[in-house]
Amino acid sequence: MPIGKLDHYSIRTPDTEASRRFYTDVMGFQVGFRPPFDFPGLWLYNGAPYPESCGVVHIIGIDLEDPQGLKAYLGDRDPDSLSGTGTVDHVAFNATGLADMRARLQRHEVAFRERTVPALGLHQVFFEDPSGVTIELNFPAAEARRAA
């Protein structure tokens, strides 16, 4: 199961503007393409824009008035836990070998969930490590179509 480079990290926050300012003004990243998810947020790029890159930091906005889109996509989080390392939502890797990974997760009785993001040509597999850290593996969507 070849796992590639670290893809991006995500930060869940009720203040997307403060995060945007930090990552653009302090870090020098640029706001770029982000698929039309059902929750607020932005993707920040360091150099290569989409489609060469999917960004290095994904800001996941929390809409306190309408949190359902985020809850449906990534699950719920206690707002009091979103400080320090609690703001890191998940770690993502590019990968190949979707069928092998599914079999491995099933063999080790690791629960996982999947979804395809057509705008990116990605098939995502999400699962948690023993400490509760969410891992996202991004496979080419064509692998999911072949396995269907």
Main attributes of the structure:
single chain; 148 residues; alpha+beta; 2,3-Dihydroxybiphenyl 1,2-Dioxygenase, domain 1; eight-stranded mixed sheet; 8 strands
How would you characterize the overall build of this protein?
- The chain has four helices and eight strands.
- It is globular, with a radius of gyration of 16 Å.
- It is an alpha+beta fold and 148 residues long.
- Helices cover 24% and strands 34% of the residues.
- A hairpin with an 8-residue loop joins β2 and β3 (41-45).
- The chain has an eight-stranded mixed sheet with strand order 2-3-4-1-5-8-7-6.
- The mean pLDDT is 88.
- The chain has one domain (3-147): Roll (2,3-Dihydroxybiphenyl 1,2-Dioxygenase, domain 1), CATH 3.10.180.10.
Quick overview of this protein structure:
By secondary structure, the chain is an alpha+beta fold. The chain has helices spanning 16-26, 68-74, 98-107, 141-147; strands at 3-13, 30-32, 41-45, 57-61, 88-95, 113-117, 122-128, 134-140. It has a single domain (3-147), classed as 2,3-Dihydroxybiphenyl 1,2-Dioxygenase, domain 1.
